[in-house]
Amino acid sequence: MQKVIVESPQTKLQNDLILRVARGEEVERPPVWLMRQAGRILPQYRALRGKLSGFKELVETPELAAEVTIQPIDELDVDAAIIFSDILVIPEAMGLTYEMIEKKGPFFPETIKQGADVDKLASGEHAAAQLQYVFDALAITKRELGGRVPLIGFAGAPWTILSYMVEGQGSKTFSKARKLLYQNPQLAHQLLQKITDTTIAYLKLKVAAGADMLQVFDSWAGILPKAQYSAFAIPYIRQICDAIQDVPITVFAKDAWFALEELGQLDCNTIGLDWHLDPQDVRQKVGADKALQGNLDPCLLYADEQEIATSTEEMIQRFGKQHIVNLGHGVYPDTPLPGVKCFVNTVKAFRY
Ligand code: CP3
To answer: Choosing from 29, 40, 148, 283, which is the catalytic residue?
Structure first.
């Protein structure tokens, strides 16, 4: 069943294309945005970032986070803004601070190793309330956008967040996190539940602060076997989807081709697809009522403009309607801006 979303009377959006697709309504062309469009690719972002002490200063200063969120709307004219933040603010709110190390990525000085570490963590509304700087950034962005496009809020899926909290940094295998599932499944469930309770409270506060739509990123979905994904990931994503009833929600589980039927059963509006997936196969597995988001190969934006335009149009044709155009994962930092603009403009010129 498509989730019924009641439109709030105060929203006067000039462009609500993405919300209409998420709600299952007819549109004249698909909307387009890029995962990781805020930060990474724009020279304006790098200029601002260069003046600051680091990534966290940007994330934790609401005026600056709002500025970076709006940069891709001004520069690329995409159909949605995504709030500049990170999925790792949730572990921090629960009591595990992170560092963002230049050219390396996230690092947690303390990690989860045993039951006492999980017991110590804050969770739920109490933990989520620590993230006032995110809610302030949303409110400022919403005001400064002036209804130009909808604003997307996001969080990591519980399994992906657990991976960072146990591993302490990025990893090719996430074998420490995966070891926990085999050696102490009960502790894994306790931790996943605490993360879920915090994430639900956090996403509700994001909506209250102005998010028009939400996305859950399960970036490390693809490293679990199907049975473990069903046991340790899906039930917690389901709790999140069930708890969010006011705005459309997208679930992007990267490389989770094996879980499409289960993702299709969730009470979400949109399913995000990585670039391996064929939209027609996915449609058969998830049923008729979800919108699908994706899924151009991010590396296609390194190709010449003719190829970008042709491949983008072919992708739109393959998806048919109920489609939000995006890449199959976040845009890579060294992607040439003309390629990004060609992609966006091709979608904007398309008519069904
Ligand atoms: O989409 C957007 O533009 C909004 C902002 C956003 C960031 N991170 C900003 C960021 C979003 C949605 C995220 C999500 C995120 N963060 C994910 C899930 C999405 C995905 O890509 O799979 C993950 C796994 C993280 C964790 C994280 N944050 C890593 C691994 C890194 C380092 C490598 C990198 O650049 O992605 C970050 C840092 C980070 N988060 C940067 C940005 C713009 C780069 C920081 C810098 O300016 O140096």
So the answer is: 40
